[in-house]
Amino acid sequence: MSSYELFSDTELTLLLRKGDVTAFSEIHSRYYPLLYKHAYKRLQDREEVKDILQELFSSIWHNRTAFNLSTSLSAYLYTAVRNRILNIYKHHKIKSDYVASLQSFIDNNQVPEPDENVRIKQLIELIETEVAKLPTQMRRIFEMSRNANLSHQQIADELNISPLTVRKQVNNSLKILRVKLGTHFFMIFF
Known about the structure:
By secondary structure, the chain is an all-alpha fold. The protein folds into 2 domains: 86 residues, RNA polymerase sigma factor, region 2, helix turn helix motif (Rna Polymerase Sigma Factor, Chain: A, Orthogonal Bundle); 76 residues, Winged helix-like DNA-binding domain superfamily/Winged helix DNA-binding domain (Arc Repressor Mutant, subunit A). It is 79% helix and 0% strand. Helix 6 packs across helix 8 and helix 7 crosses helix 8.
């Protein structure tokens, strides 16, 4: 039994702020199983729960010098996990609404106008051009995700990187494409 197991959460938090890796490991060991069970009850997706916890603990370590709690450590961790779960629910809702909206559009607009076909072709060419400008690794991950329809875990396994890295690369590429295509989209379609 290490001496860190005897430390209180407050003592571990103070050591963490000083960059003590063993204190961080003790916090992780102490709370990871509890947080995993808590999150899994709500999500029922092991990979998503692992991603949430990896992101949480990574964030704590990277922001350790500014890690200042106004509540107990356990309350902070449970709240952080709850907020990440709510963000996932919100993301799923937005995705579901988008799919429903797209399906409604398709159902109501079976035959595109001739100039719409030209606009769609221009947009596809523009998207392909902008995707080609992405950094090599980001482009490869994005294409594997979107063109090959591989899951984040499948991409991570193939490229020997973490699923969190894959998710971040896909999100970053989408952000870049939204910014780059935003003005072009309106010029083509309006």
